[in-house]
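To the team - CA2 complex, inputs and output below.
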Amino acid sequence: MSQSGMAGTKSILVINGPNLNLLGSRETEFYGRDTLEAINARLAKRAAEAGVRLATYQSNSESDLVERIQQARRDKVDFILVNPAAYTHTSVAMRDALAAVGIPFVEVHLSNVFAREPFRHESYFSDIAVGTVSGLGAKGYELALEFALQYSGKE
Ligand code: CA2
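Output:
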């Protein structure tokens, strides 16, 4: 169900967790060569084409990420794409924030977490997400955005 503030305008928030500000510089074998700025620019372009409001946010701080998720409810955000990064595997606080705001979300990972260390196989988010994308690189954000554009809550 859309909770859009401005009549008819869907609002989508993209949240990225710790160290994703370093994208494109190191560990390119896992995370690819795109910078976060480049990824966000592509998402913004697609959102503009679709007539949707899109905001992006990255933080290395768990508390700031929790605050931003809480803010999303006040902003009447309809859908969230979130890559919690390392907090995927540790953050009950981010999970609780997403559960509390009740905004549907897709969990996105650049790398295939299931092909990596066992500790990356556990997520505090997957069971409350609408779905997850893992291992498709930066394209995963774009595919998740396409899903969010079509999402009506009646799926
Ligand atoms: O595959 C993903 O998207 C991850 O969420 C990325 C996290 C990792 O802890 C998760 O298990 C899977 C790590 C993000 C670190 O990003 C960097 C980017 C460039 C250079 C170094 C780290």
